[in-house]
Each structure stands twice: as structure tokens, then as C-alpha cells.
Amino acid sequence: MASKRLQFSKVTQLKLGNKILEDYERENWNPEMKEIHSMLKQSDFKVLDVEKINNPYLYGMYLLHKEEMIKNSKIVIEDLLYHCTSPSNGLKIASKNIDWRLTCRTRFGQGACFSKSPRYAHTHAGSDGVFVVCKVLMSVIQNLYLANYNLKIPSDGYDTTLGNNGQVYVKYDDFTFYPKYIIYYK
Fold it and tell me: Which parts of the chain span the membrane according to its record (predicted)?
């Protein structure tokens, strides 16, 4: 079955309410996107299209949450991580963000799952997926050495769980991640 992917011309923009999803042409890629592309290429993925997410509401809430974490924790780690999903979910994420409450796989906790490895993220998506590259905030990380299917949220004092030998980051709060790019690949 063919992907239900939207086609964009060079300067076309799709409005999602008050949000903007814009085609991100290769000649305009910033160093961050070039690094992401390099990592995907090393993992044998071919980038077909990149859309940059410009959602002022989500980004503003992310920044407020970041300030709150800095005030409360003093130590905040911000990392770019991969979340793999279907193309239709990618568009929903651009508009409303990832809803961690809808998680159906709960090996390392019932939350939004991310990975530093595009290869690992891809193993948990269908053949017709997209990467949503997100900025993710972490402060106190609980390492899980064994799968825990009953874990709903991390132990007191932790905001993130890390499982499968550092491959899976699980987040349990709204606005502790911001979707930056949707990357169509094969």
C-alpha cells in the first residue's frame, strides 16, 4: 500500500491550525540537520524528504518546562533523539506533540519512547514509517537493566527511564520533548 504522504513543492507550507510544517530543502539544512542526515546515512537509511516543525505553542511550553526543570533540578540534559512512527502520526505529532499516555509497548515504562540510534528506533516501526527527531529534556535518569512491563511511571525522583543497554529513553511528562523534524526515509 502506498504511503499517504503529502507532496510539497519547494516553498509550499502546510498550515496545521496556527502551526506551520515546512518543507526543509537540503540547501537550507543547518549543521544539526546535516549531522542527523549523516547519522541516518551511516545507518543505511535514505532520506526522502525532511519537514521542519515550527509550532510556537509546543516550543513555548517546552521552554517553560525546561526553565522549571533547571530551577528544580539544576542539571538538565537536552538531547536530540529519534521517535519512529507512521506518516499520519508524524503529522499529528507536529500539531499536538507525542501523547505518552497512548503508549502500547511498555517494556521500560508507559511513556513516549526515544532512541539515540535511528536503527534501533526503526526496529519498532512498520516498513512505512517516519522519524520524528525531537529535542528531549532529562534530569534524573533511572536505568532499567531488565524489562519491566508493569512500570507505569519511574520511581520517585526520576523523570526518565533508560533501558535496553541505553537504547531506549522513556519520558512521562508533557512538554519534556519538542518535535523538530519529520524525516521520511526508506
Answer: none
- CB-CB contact of 82 with 131 (8 Å): yes
pLDDT score of 5: 42
Name all domains of the chain by residue range, CATH numbers in brackets. Answer: 14-185 (3.90.228.10)
Q: How far apart are CA 163 and CA 169, in angstroms?
A: 7
Three-state DSSP at 89 gives helix
Rounded to whole angstroms, the maximal C-alpha distance in the chain is 49
- Residue 114 burial by CB count (10 A; 0-12/13-18/19+): exposed, middle or buried? buried
Q: Is 12 helix (H, G, I), strand (E, B) or coil?
A: coil
Residues with Cβ within 8 Å of residue 149, at least 6 apart in sequence: 106, 107
Q: Is the predicted pLDDT of residue 88 greater than 80, yes or no? A: yes
- Our measurement of the distance from residue 151's CA atom to the centroid of its chain's CA atoms, rounded to an integer in Å, reads 21
The kind and range of the H/E element at 93 are: helix 87-96
The pTM assigned to this predicted structure is 0.81
Residue 94 near residue 21 (C-beta atoms within 8 A): yes
User: Which of the four pLDDT bands, split at 50, 70 and 90, describes residue 81?
Assistant: very high
Distance CA 112, CA 102 (A): 8
